[in-house]
Amino acid sequence: MKSSVITFPGSNCDRDMDVALNKFGFKNKMVWHNDNELPKSDLVVLPGGFSYGDYLRCGSMASKSKIMHSVINFAKSGGLVMGICNGFQILVETGLLPGVLLRNKYLEFICKNIYVKIDNKQNPYFKNLDKDIFEFHIAHNEGNYFCTKDQLNEIKDNNQIAIYYCDKNGQTDEQYNPNGSTKNIAGIFNKEKNVLGMMPHPERMIDQSLSGEDGSLFFKNLINNLK
Amino acid sequence: MIVNEKIAIEHGLKSNEYKKICDLLKRNPNITELGIFSAMWNEHCSYKSSRLHLKKLPTKGKKVIQGPGENAGVIDIEDGDAIVFKIESHNHPSFIEPYQGAATGVGGIMRDVFTMGARPIANLNSIHFGSPQHKKTKNLLRGVVHGIGGYGNCMGVPTIAGQTSFDSSYNGNILVNAMTLGLVKKNKIFYSKAAGLNKPVIYVGSKTGRDGIHGASMASASFDEKIEEKKPTVQVGDPFTEKLLLEACLELMAGDSIIAIQDMGAAGLTSSSIEMASKGNLGVQINLNKVPCREAKMTPYEIMLSESQERMLIVLENGKEELAKKIFDKWNLDFAIIGKTTDTKNIELFFDNKQVANIPVNTLVENSPMYDRKWKKSKLPKKNKIKKDSLNSLKIKDVLKKILSHPNICSKEWIWQQYDHTVMGDTIQKPGGNSGVVRVHGTNKAIAASVDSSAVYCWAHPLTGGKQVVAESWRNLISVGATPIAITNCLNFGSPEKEENMGEFVECVQGIGEACEYLNFPVVSGNVSFYNQTKEIGIKPTPSIGGVGLIKDYNKMVTMNFKEIDNIVMVIGKTEGHIDQSLFARSILDEKNGPPPEVNLFNEKNNGESLLNLIQKGHVKSAHDVSLGGIITAVSKMSIKGNKSIKFNKSKNLINEIYYFFSEDQGRYIIEINPKDLKEVTKILDQNSVYHEELGIIIEKDMIINQKTKVTIDELKSYNSNWLTNFMST
Q: pTM higher than 0.90 for the full model?
């Protein structure tokens, strides 16, 4: 399986994602934001970081990068595009995903382990996973997902909510919401489920010496789904 | 403008120093030249009060590749790898403008490290604030934490450890010390020594603005009521540009174009160009019209003294200009050829086709003032005679609650959760442990780092305090299973012009030196920050020690959380019951006098090395050094982290129970071992003559202190975890 990770000026989780993808069997290529063409890919990843220094709005300038034309076309033709953290912010700025990401409710950067509950497994990212609750890791300042009432109804109707913040038993109460996100939303899909944006960093949970191993489960499953 | 003594004094120079400048130049300097002298001769850049004493520190060792004098120190971690590291203060700017002050402190130290060709892999910090009751404390703390996070998080470098304390002596002068570690191949280290004639001098990075002019001079003076007027001397940081600068520099460094490179930190273009010329015994000629400026009509004086951030100066090989420019263009950074190296041994500046400065480089560096300031020796204070009655009324549980929730002991999670500590995917010990630990990417090796200071001990007796901080750093590295290699130090003191403060400095340095020498733990880099003083009141002497150690196989790393029920908990090192200057004496008995605990370097070395041996043999399941708050505080933290606790044995020690639990004798560690290893562990410790004692066994939930006293694990957690969060949310 071939993957591409886009590096924008200010991306800083691009290498971590490269390490994770290669570890679980992807042949990954790093792609510079100023390139025109995407290499042939089964998966395109927009990594975390501070593209363009978060100036203007997080993800806004990156969404207008040269390579993003190709990424958008790739997504529209059904290709798998995953945005993590700043990548998620970029995806909402392109309009591939609905809604926006506001500053965290308590106006502070948060770096810690959290639990998420997978709501919908009818998609190439999560199908065949044999559990619903994952321990993931977040590190962000702007992860407070917000959308209009109409948008919320629409994404609910279309099963677009990918993961919710919860406790280790899957309770999705407000107290387990680290950043003030609407409905505890930690990640969403586009209507077609080929585009996924999420705040947690699975690439930081890929061996037992790190914060945990649930990221390994995610990547192993993902590559098997794509085979 | 005609320069005279009055103007020189306004620049922070003394009248004898001004006279010396005129003698050296054999004429009066012009205003640009005066600015350059004032920048190079201030305390921050010239180390004029400290040089004499710093020379006495041990700086050499088998593992030392580069000691003090470069942008940062470098140590060998085998297999062709090296670690570049340094700690630096940004105290004065952080008090004036906490966010930008702290942020640019972090940015500056990272630049020092990647200037040498190393990719930063970990950040640490040591931050000290005034009393929690002081009206400025909360805002300063919030601003500093946001600033450190704002810069480090954006750079994508994990902040893996730190230290925070509160003490009223910092009410008017907070301390912000930032440390960075970088990883480099031994054969790709870059230095700041220029070489060769007519080599192009290149300016890269951000444009030069009017920010930070006289920053280094400001950091070389005490504060008074006009402090708000100093805001324009604080630099403004842009971590995004620095991230681009990092990637661009490392890309250029992969080739062989660079002869010398130096970041523009304190005193900006002035000190960077002069240092490169001085080290290479060369001259340098700069055309200031070529310097990329952010604002119109900047004068030569302003260009030379600006401390705008995210800039580098490079001496390039001839013919490599195009290649270098292409890389900086790719990263959207300014690139300008602003001058060349010469054989005049002078710094010559031109602006609008006129020469605006011409100064022999050696007058700025070798001939800079050096003072043997007067200093006062401190006596070891007499031991307190604490009346036993005052202890009888105390209940251990109440005392433990107060100690665990004390601002200087409580959990600092509110702080470190705001720092990205996991980016780069190699952090295997997060903040809140003995040391932060990161893997050397793609290998089985890991690097442990810790930053420590003990201002109270240094204040009570500087010589002992200096030794103690080094010993504590050493213990923090040992506790995770790392072999200590070297330290960097950030020496924060009051005014060197006062004999008491200068004495504190001299004796702390002596203590640091003795401990480093004995423990074979050399100093490879550092920085001195004097004048942490508002009017007549100086801070408690606060040397911060950043220690670095190597773990050859990270699978053998040890953490501090209790692991398994029924395991045995032991204390290594003898508990004599030294209570003076302990947190217990100061915060429970309100007793501020007496000597700090004695540091026995033989025991430190012996106990530490023996423990490391046990760890390498796989006998140690968890470990924590005993420091502030004594045995019971250390055990409580291990319980909280492991969600298990301990049933204490009845102490065989004859000393009072409170003394036993809360005294701060040095050289001690708490370790957890499996009962089946007890015989072997005891044998090894006995063979090495290391004092040890069984403390108790690990049990499921409650800490059982004695027949009458029980503390639940939830109580321990609530004592420890709430203070800072509550303080910051009210």
A: yes
